[in-house]
Amino acid sequence: MKKVQFKSKYIPYLFVFPQMAIILIFFIWPSAMAFYYSFVLEDAFGISSRFVWFQNYQDTIFNNDYYSSIIFTFVFSALVTLFSLSVGLLLAYKTNNIIKAKGLYRTLLMWPYAIAPAIAGLMATFFFSESHGALYDFLNSLGWKFDPKSDPFDAQVMLVFVASWKQISVDFIFFLSGLQGIPKSIMEASLIDCKSAVKRFWTIVFPLLAPTTFFLLITNITYSFFDTFGLIDTTTRGTPMGETRTLAYKIYQDGFLGADIGGSSAQSVILLLFVLIITIFQFKYLEKRIHY
Amino acid sequence: MVIIAILMFLVPVWVIFASSTHTPETILNQGLQFLTGDNFLHTYSSIFFDHTGYTKNVTAARMLLNSLILAVGFATGKVIISSMAAYAIVYFRFKMANFLFWIIFLTLLLPIQVRIVPSFEVLAHLNLLNSYTGLIVPLIASATGTFFFRQFYKSVPEELLEAAKMDGANSWQFFIDILVPISKTMMAALFIVMFIVGWNQYLWPIMMTTKPEYNTILLGIKEIYQSNFEGSYLPEFNRAFAMIIVALIVPVSMVIIFQRWFIKGLVDSEK
Fold first, then answer.
1. A215 φ, ψ to 5°?
2. Best interface-test mutation with A: which of B15, B117, B180 has the largest number of A CBs within 10 A?
3. Chain-wide mean pLDDT for chain A?
4. Which chain B residues have a beta carbon less than 8 Å from that of A127?
5. Residue at A168 is within a domain
6. C-beta of residue A91 within 8 angstroms of C-beta of residue B2
7. What CATH number is given to the structural domain containing B159?
8. DSSP 8-state code for residue A5
9. Of B215, B190, B191, nearest in space to B204 by CA
10. B78 Cα distance to chain centroid
11. Is residue A41 part of a domain?
12. What is the average pLDDT across A2-17?
């Protein structure tokens, strides 16, 4: 905070008021409702409801669908994060070493940021469709009986592929600007001291990128958890049998399509706690240790 | 290696574009096309001016306008509201500052996808379904922009405020006459990023808009696509593809044209 500040009893509240009003109405209110619903069971017609303590939580936790959704979400997030981070880093490193027309390469790798996950999903449905899909034909010509419509594993592979494809540009942009932030003198000194390019990368460049990598780790996890919603909704919608539902997608399906408000709300609360833990972890622990 | 990656992004979009210029029969019989056909004008004029949707009363032009309203409204709202809130938190000494900061922080934890049902109910209560207000305002309730400005304000030299105080400026004058002008670049940067985020919103517009007049372009594509796969008549893939291209052009050109601001807006929100 600033050393010199304004002192006023009322004026600061005027400045935060618009944001606070919006948060109160459109965030706190619905979140509080979700919290309340998570302890309530409504009858089939939505007429009466009664307080059931933790029954919704029990029903959620002791449910195989929920487990498979948790496992899918975690594996999916880990793979998407791993693939898009490593490809993004590699591309940024290569691009940073290009001397001619660097700006052009940057533009050509950066623009996919603007592709909405839902658009990526719609495009993917065509490329992976059995009737016209080039990628579908290609994978089947390799001898893999690829069929995302009925094989859960194939559907998961497709989602990981498309989700990573869409996220590479974000990681690329951050890594490239991280690389450009490394002082030239360090790069030059490392060039003299260390002949092996691979070793130079891992011992000098990569550690200097640690804060960027860490930040991106969190960004990618949040992306896989929440922003892939549009992708899933335009491709598999959780099919074949719910194997491709992330936790966020399951909350939507159970709550909005399945009309199980209590269970869906309980899942929201659990997910909130989980994200809270990640965030605290990010702020308190790792961020301090990683700074060079 | 870099070239392969570039192609990996360009080729799919190119194929979609090339296919969009063919007739639906060609696509149905021969699959996706790598070369452009001669149906370009027909397809694109039909999506812009013919009415589609369940009720057949929306054109892609209207949906583009809705997307534009959503993106501009969202980005503008975000810039104004979060620059003000960050100003209060950084430049004022007041009791609730910390508490309010944590409230804002809390919004990061529960994205709209996970509180969608109660959010929908709140909007229904307030009679805001099928309105631009209902489409835009709830999406603004997140912390990213506030953090972005907070970080920037903290980097503004202390002397600026001291000097302004010496000249007798009050808090409002300092904000409007000094802080806003020096943060113009930052505002533009955040605007560009938020424009794209707003344009690419998917779930909230689906939930919010039951009337096709409020559909955004993304929903339009989804609708055509659904009638393609579920409908009985000849699938109009060319139209779906053309809509995809149209929906992509706006945010992609924003990224390319405003590249510097865009990168700044994206990367600076990290710190």
1. -60, -45
2. B117
3. 83
4. 12, 15, 32
5. yes
6. yes
7. 1.10.3720.10
8. -
9. B215
10. 11
11. no
12. 79
| Cβ atoms B149, A19 nearer than 8 A | no
CATH code of the domain in which A234 resides: 1.10.3720.10
Write the single-letter amino acid at A156.
Q
The predicted pLDDT at position A87 comes to: 94
- Using alpha carbons, select from A266, A231, A267, A261 the residue that is nearest to residue A248: A267
B92 in helix, strand or coil?
strand
Rounded (5°) CA angle B56-B60-B63: 95
Q: Helices A134-141 & A117-127, crossing angle to 10 degrees?
A: 50
pLDDT at A151: 81
Q: How many domains, in total, are found in chain A?
A: 1
| Tokens coding B166 | 């010496």
Determine which of A60, A119, A170 to mutate to test the interface with B (most B C-beta atoms within 10 Å): A119
DSSP secondary structure code for residue B232 in this structure: S
The answer as to whether A22 is a domain residue is no
Helix (H) or strand (E) holding B254: helix B237-257
| Per-residue pLDDT band at B206 (split at 50, 70, 90) | confident
- Measured in angstroms, the CA of B110 and the nearest CA of chain A are apart by 6
Chain B nearest-CA residue for A1:
B90
Nearest to B32 among A107, A134, A265 (CB): A134
Substitution target from A6, A13, A19, A28 for chain B, most B beta carbons within 10 A: A19
Q: Which domain holds residue B195?
A: 2-268
Query: How long, in residues, is chain A?
Result: 292
SS (H, E, C) A38-105: CCEEECCCCCCEEECCCHHHHHHHCCHHHHHHHHHHHHHHHHHHHHHHHHHHHHHHHHHHCCCCHHHH
Top-confidence range, B30-34, B143-147, B174-178, B263-267: B174-178
Q: Which residues make Cβ contacts (< 8 Å) with residue A74, sequence separation at least 6?
A: none
The pLDDT of residue A210 is: 86
- pTM for the model: 0.88
Question: How far apart, in whole angstroms, are the C-alpha atoms of residue B4 and residue B34?
Answer: 17
Burial B22-42, CB ≥16 within 10 A → b, else e:
bbbebbbeebbbeeebebbee
Whether A19 maps to a domain, the answer reads: no
CA angle B14, B18, B22 (to 5 degrees): 160
CA distances from A62 to A37, A57, A272, B149, B253 (A): 19, 8, 19, 44, 48
Q: Contact, B208 vs B214, CB < 8 A?
A: yes
Instruction: Check: CB of residue B198 under 8 Å from CB of residue A42.
Output: no
Q: Residue A251 is nearest to which of B84, B114, B165, comparing CB atoms?
A: B114
Q: What are phi and psi of A8, to 5 degrees?
A: -160, 145
Residue B213 has pLDDT above 60, yes or no: yes
Q: How far is A233 from chain B (nearest CA, A)?
A: 9
Domains contained in chain B, number: 1
Interchain CB distance below 8 Å, B119 and A26: yes
Residue range(s) defining the domain that contains residue A250: 63-290
